[in-house]
Write a structure and sequence with these properties.
CATH class of the largest domain: Alpha Beta
Helix content: 10-25%
Shape: elongated
Distance between the termini: 43 Å
Number of domains: 2
CATH topology of the largest domain: Rossmann fold
Radius of gyration: 20 Å
Number of strands: 17
CATH architecture of the largest domain: 3-Layer(aba) Sandwich
Largest sheet: 6 strands, antiparallel
Strand content: 35-45%
CATH superfamily of the largest domain: Probable inorganic polyphosphate/atp-NAD kinase, domain 1
């Protein structure tokens, strides 16, 4: 039973402000407590009474039944990142271009959202990638990208798994994606689509200058090292689209499937292939 939720929205409030107000009003009617970050109040110029929502400086350590994210896949990924416990379920309402991770569209407020909040939903467990960069550890729901610096030329990246060395290859970078992330940057670079039923990670090069590279799919218990062999040039690291630091020349990222899982709220009977078809295949005519 959902009794307490958090709500965050797209960075561009003009697209989601009216929907945010609908969600707040609906939750008041359903007697669901809403936790709203202060930045949401300021961004949307809201006048929120105590009966409509509880405003907090940060939701990172808040305990809620789920978080409603109004936006595209980027907003959903940000929602996962906003909680110190990555296991907080996230329900996405799509205001983006694709919205692969979304549960419903904006036209499903209030009826569809009411059904989801009153228990008519499923929780989909998403595989995560764990990354170690020196002493730092981070988790990715979608992908980890090693990329040439802004304005820089290609980087030379080598990779190894199970004691076998590959590369180095000259490229714009590499994408290591989860099954959920296989439909994003990985797909744009010609990588394979991977069913959400699998616990796997996919390595795909970005614009590789070679005839020999092919995407690599790794399973549970397998690990991957990606090493920067670009003389005198640090590569940029991005985690789910966020700045994840740099990878110095000679340094390696250690990557593996995480023991943790992210929890995505979906309507009952949701199917990966149906969602794939509905989001990416244009209707005939």
């Amino acid at each position: 039973m959902v009794t307490r939720i958090a709500v965050i929205s797209h960075r561009q409030s003009a697209a989601t402000r009216d929907a945010l107000m609908q969600v707040l009003q609906l939750c008041r009617e359903l007697s669901i407590e809403v936790i709203l970050p202060q930045r949401e109040v300021e961004k949307n110029s809201l006048e929120v009474s105590g009966s409509l929502a509880t405003v907090v400086p940060d939701i990172r350590d808040m305990r809620v039944d789920l978080c409603v994210a109004l936006g595209g896949d980027g907003t959903i990924l940000r929602a996962f990142n906003r909680f110190s416990n990555v296991g907080t379920p996230v329900l996405g309402i799509n205001f983006g271009r694709v919205g692969f991770l979304s549960a419903i569209g904006p036209d499903a407020i209030p009826d569809g959202l009411t059904a989801l909040l009153q228990g008519g939903h499923e929780i989909l467990d998403l595989s995560l990638i764990a990354m170690k960069n020196g002493d730092d550890r981070a988790l990715a729901v979608n992908d980890i990208v090693v990329h040439k610096p802004d304005g820089g030329s290609v980087v030379r990246l080598a990779y190894s798994t199970s004691g076998v060395e590959f590369g180095p290859i000259s490229c714009d970078g590499m994408v290591l994606s989860t099954p959920a992330g296989s439909t994003a940057y990985n797909l744009s670079n010609g990588g394979p689509l991977v069913s959400l039923a699998l616990d796997a990670m996919v390595l795909t090069a970005i614009a590789p200058h070679t005839l020999q590279f092919r995407s690599l799919v790794l399973g549970p218990g397998e690990s991957l090292d990606v090493r920067n062999e670009t003389p005198g040039t640090a590569a940029a690291v991005y985690i789910d689209g966020r700045n994840g630091g740099i990878l110095e020349t000679g340094a390696s990222l250690k990557l593996s499937m995480a023991t943790e899982r992210a929890h995505l709220v979906q309507p009952p009977g949701s199917d990966f292939y149906r969602t794939l078809h509905d989001r990416f295949i244009q209707p005939a005519g």
